[in-house]
Amino acid sequence: MADRINKDRAKAIMIQGTMSNAGKSLLCTGLCRIFKQDGYKVAPFKSQNMALNSAITSDGLEMGRAQYVQAEAAGIEPSVLMNPILLKPVTTMGSQLIVRGEVRGNYQAAEYFRMKHQLIPEIQSAYDDLAAENDIIVIEGAGSPAEINLSKGDFANMGMAKMAGAPVILAGDIDRGGVFAQLYGTVKLLPEDEQNIIKALVINKFRGDVSLLGNGLDMISDLTGKPVAGVIPMMDVDIDDEDSLSSRLTRQSKPALIDVAVIRLPKISNFTDLAPLEATDGVGVRYITSPGEIGNPDLIVIPGTKSTIADLKWMRSSGIEAVIKKLSSSDTPVIGICGGYQMLGEKITDHEGAEGGGSIRGMELLPVVTEFQHEKHRTRTSGNFLEVSGIFSSLTGQPLTGYEIHMGRTILEGNGVPLIKLENGQLMGCQNGNVYGSYLHGFFDSAECRREILDELGKNKGIDFSPESFNWSEYKDQQYNKLAAALRASLDMEMIYKIIEKGI
Length: 504
Description:
Blueprint: E1 11-17, H1 24-37, E2 42-45, E3 48-50, E4 54-56, E5 62-64, H2 65-74, E6 85-89, E7 94-99, E8 102-108, H3 109-115, H4 120-131, E9 136-140, H5 158-164, E10 168-173, H6 179-189, H7 192-195, E11 198-206, H8 216-224, E12 228-233, E13 258-263, E14 268-269, H9 275-278, E15 283-288, H10 291-294, E16 299-302, E17 304-305, H11 308-318, H12 320-329, E18 334-337, H13 339-343, E19 347-349, E20 359-361, E21 368-385, E22 399-412, E23 420-422, E24 427-428, E25 430-432, E26 435-438, H14 447-461, H15 472-490, H16 493-502
């Protein structure tokens, strides 16, 4: 198939959805892998992403997790060119604006809507740079193109399709019901010129026998004037999710020997840290929203958050903090990552107003204090565990790699004991008995770290638990291939290649 596309210039295909969480990200990820397998140089692109799950590029810049994953599927180095605008919600009405990987400030929704047209040159420039280096660009839309209240000045959906000259495939989510109404309504709410940009429909997340759809596919095709390019089944693939709509956060944990309770903070971010544990046989990861759900876990994890102070107040008022402190006092191990690490300390202050100002008492489980700063620290890094106390003493000396992404500066107080020595010689994190905290995301990716942690949790429980070790990078690659195979079996790839070649 590699001769189907004229490689003299980049072609584009755009996946839009009838709603948020319609499966756009997964479709784009799978198409990136398919085009790579077929011999093309392919790159993902999303002009504007709103998500709390982000990633750090090799040059220390921040981008949406979804496009980072799609770049991995495409077999290329992730770049902020693939996601020039990232919005990270801070409050219900405002977000941190990140342009080409760097923070521009915090904006209320109305304020951002008024100024966002100024970002169009940034988007066009990023897309042009990416298109100059690739054969195919797989563009992901945002939300729905039929948000008629937001259509003016749009550059996330049809506005982006026009900028890139990208034909659109519209995906609907049958799992939530009303898929035919979703598809028909979305198409018909668009002006005629934008309807014409949509070249095909896809029904996503189907369960059961496709024959049950009967003549529905022909009917929706006749009603919209758009062919159906495929019916994609609900797939059992383990690929990083984009944001808090993720099913990871609500699905029932599988029966397990090792029980990990993760606090589902209101502004939880980078919960993909836990994905390697979820993928490990014998480990159950539960996301907790109330004190009664915590039970008696083998490990408690307080993950990252975009609003540390607000989420700490939520933990306090909900009673979750009190339960964690009680369990910690009886030696249940607690790990805090990034914002979770900040919460475990003595005090958090925000003199610069990064999170609205003020100060708050921490959980007082680690002898550290945190002060927020407007400047965001972003970097990939590596290092080694220092001498580790408590249950995880076997981690002593273990190498680890990951990334930092935070706006606070945390310092040890009194007899505070650091946890990690970074490759640049700096000390990071803190430990106190069975309580551990650091800014390093991604250390569960290490097979060695996972094995030591899980082995010790098993011993602490009085069971012999030696999970099979696996390489996380290889595991992810297998999942991308699995996704691509499922899409090939469900999509009319002949039709999709013709759509790409013809354009809009």
